[in-house]
């Protein structure tokens, strides 16, 4: 999936409101996806929580094919900032 497709997938997940905290999915050279509430952009802004993840793993996560806890434990996801914000993502991904 391209970054634009992933951004649209995230936008669909948070259309109902998402979470109030800000989250940035950092996909390295591919770019970032910034989420706050139902706002989703590709702007590289400061966020309460930054999740470093590859495009492929993010696509699998959004499709429900990658367990977030196992991905974190195996190093496929790295979390910087407020870990409690990352835990709230379970309600949208």
Number of strands: 5
Q: Compute the separation of the termini in Å.
A: 16 Å
Q: Taking all residues together, what is the mean pLDDT? A: 92
Q: Percent range for helical residues?
A: 25-40%
Q: Report the principal-axis shape.
A: globular
Proportion in β-strands: 15-25%
Lateral arrangement of strands in the main beta sheet = 3-2-1-4-5
Radius of gyration: 12 Å
Number of discrete helical segments = 4
**What structural class do you assign from the helix and strand content?**
alpha+beta
SSE order, as H and E?
HEEEEHHEH
Low-confidence stretches: none
Described by strand count, sense and barrel closure, the largest sheet is: 5 strands, mixed
Would you give an account of this structure?
This protein is α+β, with helices and mostly antiparallel strands and 93 residues long. It is 33% helix and 25% strand. It is built from four helices and five strands. The chain has helices spanning 3-13, 55-62, 68-73, 83-88, and strands at residues 22-26, 32-36, 39-41, 49-53, 77-81. A five-stranded mixed beta sheet has the order 3-2-1-4-5. The longest helix has 11 residues, at 3-13. The chain starts with a helix and ends in a 5-residue tail after the last helix. The mean pLDDT is 92.
Entry keywords:
alpha+beta; 4 helices; single chain
TL;DR of this structure?
The protein is built from four helices and five strands; from the N terminus they run αββββααβα. The chain is of the alpha+beta class. A hairpin with a 5-residue loop joins strand 1 and strand 2.
């Amino acid at each position: 999936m391209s970054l634009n497709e992933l951004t649209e997938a995230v936008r669909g997940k948070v259309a109902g409101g998402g979470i109030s905290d800000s989250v940035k999915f950092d996909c390295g050279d591919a770019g970032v996806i910034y989420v706050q509430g139902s706002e989703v952009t590709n702007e590289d802004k400061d966020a309460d929580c930054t999740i470093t993840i590859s495009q492929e793993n993010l696509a699998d996560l959004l499709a429900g094919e990658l367990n977030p806890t196992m991905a974190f434990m195996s190093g496929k996801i790295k979390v910087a900032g407020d870990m409690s914000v990352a835990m709230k993502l379970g309600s949208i991904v």
